[in-house]
Write a structure and sequence with these properties.
Blueprint: H1 3-18, H2 22-30, H3 35-40, H4 47-62
Length: 63
């Protein structure tokens, strides 16, 4: 599994665990309501974007 697939899985798990819609997640964490839909279709976000989102998710899990 490559880095993008691992990231995609973490996003999907977070969405499911928090009962969010893909649009809600995209708006809140990527400032892009289509982010998850595009990720599912093969979008490869930049490393900095992935790190920023993962950092935010870790903060949510810790809270």
């Amino acid at each position: 599994m490559n880095e993008i697939e691992v990231f995609r899985n973490k996003v999907e798990q977070f969405i499911e665990a928090h009962g969010m819609t893909p649009t809600q997640f995209g708006k809140e964490y990527a400032r892009d309501p289509l982010f998850v839909f595009q990720l599912r279709r093969g979008r490869e976000p930049r490393t900095g974007t992935r790190q920023k989102i993962l950092h935010a998710l870790e903060g949510e899990r810790a809270a």
